[in-house]
Structure prediction request, 101 residues.
Amino acid sequence: MSGAVVETEREQVIRWMEEGRHILEVMASLLNDFDQLKTTAEAAREQNERLQRDGQQLREEIARLKADNERSQKERAEMAQWFSSVMSEAASRLLVERPPA
Prediction:
């Protein structure tokens, strides 16, 4: 091998080593980014699960409140009907029991 060939191969090996160092730095950066993204994704997953549980609890609370509201409206209508009946009966008694003038 001539000196020029050896020098060319030596330069090529040095370039490979420099490129290899750069590639390792990029890989280390990618692994670090992956770890950060994995942590972020896990936190987002946990928050999503918590929000789904909260949403389900709120749907159940809404259903309970709707049932309470319907029950209250029914009771109110029944009370209004009862009051109307009582007032009608009272009015009819007052008309019948009035002494002649």
Remarks:
- The chain has one helix and no strands.
